[in-house]
Amino acid sequence: MIGYSNLQFTNATQLNDPFDCHPKLIDYSNVPENKPYGEILGEWRKKTEENGATNLRNETWLCSLSKKNNSILMWSHYCYNHKGVCIGLDLDKVMESVPPMFGQLFMEPLVIDVQYKTLIERPNKYIPTQDLFTYQWRTKAKEWEYEKEVRLVIPKPSHRYAAFTKEQTEHPKEIWDCREIHYYMPLKGECFESIYFGVNTDKSEKESIIQYARKKLNPEIKLYQMQVDENEFRLKPEII
Predict the structure, then answer these.
(1) Which of 44, 104, 122, 183 has its CA 20 to 30 A from that of 1?
(2) Which residues pair with 60 in a beta bridge?
(3) What is the tally of structural domains in the chain?
(4) Are 20 and 179 in contact (CB under 8 A)?
């Protein structure tokens, strides 16, 4: 992300939560009683809507961000046991960086605050006041609430921004599922607002990142070292 100045978008079916963006989050069974076309066409409409929700999931790519920079759990899970870094972005500048054709439908990514639920509420598709596309993209289980996730959502990104990950190029396959492919949105250097180094970040790697970030990304970038608080179970950033 730092070296190539971009954001990675992953298909909604490839996330680590099997409930994420799942079509069954929405209820398609309650076809209105006053449907004018009879029972058979009513069932056909239900099946069509269910398939549409499945296709929406298959054709949507997400970039997951967070409002927090000091979560002990996320530093442990996503940053190699506190050896990695947390990158702070200026989201307004990120949105200004979106290429005109990043989405095939001339769309910019939608910025969505994830909402966390204890129960699968399954709103009725046939209630017109429900924004069901957004509901399908934003709803997650309550257990994930500590992440305070904000996600960028783009349906049908342009193929010009598709690329294999390093791991995929090292382990090629004859046939790839299109949902396995990632998309990378280029960022301007000014989008990078800050970098937080983990408690266990290697010193030489840290210095290399600092030199690169200040010379290649943003000379005004803010740099922090995460420290263990001596009095509480929390992490605290100290400016470098």
Answers:
(1) 104
(2) 155
(3) 1
(4) no
Q: Strand 182-186 vs strand 162-163: parallel, antiparallel, or unpaired?
A: antiparallel
Work out whether the CA dihedral 164, 170, 176, 177 comes out positive or negative: negative
Cα dihedral 78, 95, 68, 70 in deg (nearest 10):
60
Domain range for 201: 6-239
- 30 to 38, 46, 82, 220: CA distances (angstroms): 14, 8, 48, 55
The answer to whether the beta carbons of residues 141 and 116 sit under 8 Å apart is yes
Q: Which of 208, 210, 197 is nearest to 236 (CA)?
A: 197
Exposed/middle/buried for residue 74 (C-beta within 10 Å: 0-12, 13-18, 19+): middle
Write the DSSP symbol of residue 189: G
Q: Is the dihedral of CA 232, 233, 237, 240 positive or negative?
A: positive
- Cα separation, 193 vs 92, whole angstroms: 11
**Average pLDDT of the chain, as a whole number:** 89
Strand pairing class (110-113; 85-89) = unpaired
pLDDT tens readout for residues 69-85? 999 999 999 999 999 99
pLDDT digits (tens, 9 = 90+) for 87-114: 999 999 999 999 988 987 667 899 999 9
53 domain residue, yes or no: yes
Nearest CA-CA partner of 152 in 103, 188, 221: 103
Answering whether pTM is above 0.85, one says yes
